[in-house]
């Protein structure tokens, strides 16, 4: 387990072992790299980040991940794989499940109230983008990116 303090001052525990946290995940994130570029969404308030969001009633984590990627970017995914979980010790403890996925296609969409578009970023652009969301700047995100890159050949 990897623990750190996020940029909001909350303790966060990150695990690459499934089911390590007692709280059930209700949020998802998805890492997708295609043609050596990372899929990112542009959140209107937070900035550039990987797609993700909250589960809707009756949805599985996998269904939420597929839906959120499409709603935020217009990208269809395939080969969705569980990758990690992290728990944020906010006033109410909450957990996110992180998936990796592969590109299956893309269509033009109208972006919603939260996002204003999407972009594909190289490793360097992803690391140095001037408008990265605070989510993308913490130690946990760096640890996950290192682990994704280390396992790049598996997906």
From TrEMBL:
Pfam families: NUDIX
EC top class, as a word: hydrolase
Keyword annotations from UniProtKB, A to Z: Hydrolase
Any GO MF annotation of the entry: 8-oxo-7,8-dihydrodeoxyguanosine triphosphate pyrophosphatase activity
EC code(s) of this entry: 3.6.1.55
Residues of the Nudix hydrolase domain: 21-145
InterPro entries (alphabetical): Nudix_hydrolase, NUDIX_hydrolase-like_dom_sf, NUDIX_hydrolase_CS, NUDIX_hydrolase_dom, Nudix_YtkD
UniProt record similarity statement: Belongs to the Nudix hydrolase family.
Protein name according to UniProt: 8-oxo-dGTP diphosphatase
């Amino acid at each position: 387990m990897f623990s750190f303090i996020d940029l909001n001052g909350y303790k966060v525990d990150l695990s690459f072992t499934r089911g390590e946290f007692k709280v059930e995940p209700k949020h998802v994130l998805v890492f997708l790299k295609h043609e050596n570029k990372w899929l990112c969404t542009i959140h209107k308030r937070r900035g550039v980040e990987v797609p993700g969001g909250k589960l809707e009633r009756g949805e599985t984590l996998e269904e939420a991940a597929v839906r959120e990627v499409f709603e935020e970017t217009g990208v269809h995914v395939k080969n969705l794989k569980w990758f990690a979980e992290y728990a944020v010790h906010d006033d109410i403890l909450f957990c996110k499940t992180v998936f990796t996925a592969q590109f299956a296609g893309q269509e033009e969409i109208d972006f919603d109230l939260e996002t204003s578009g999407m972009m594909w970023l190289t490793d360097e652009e992803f690391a140095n983008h001037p408008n990265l969301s605070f989510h993308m700047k913490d130690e946990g995100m760096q640890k996950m990116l290192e682990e994704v890159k280390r396992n790049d050949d598996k997906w």
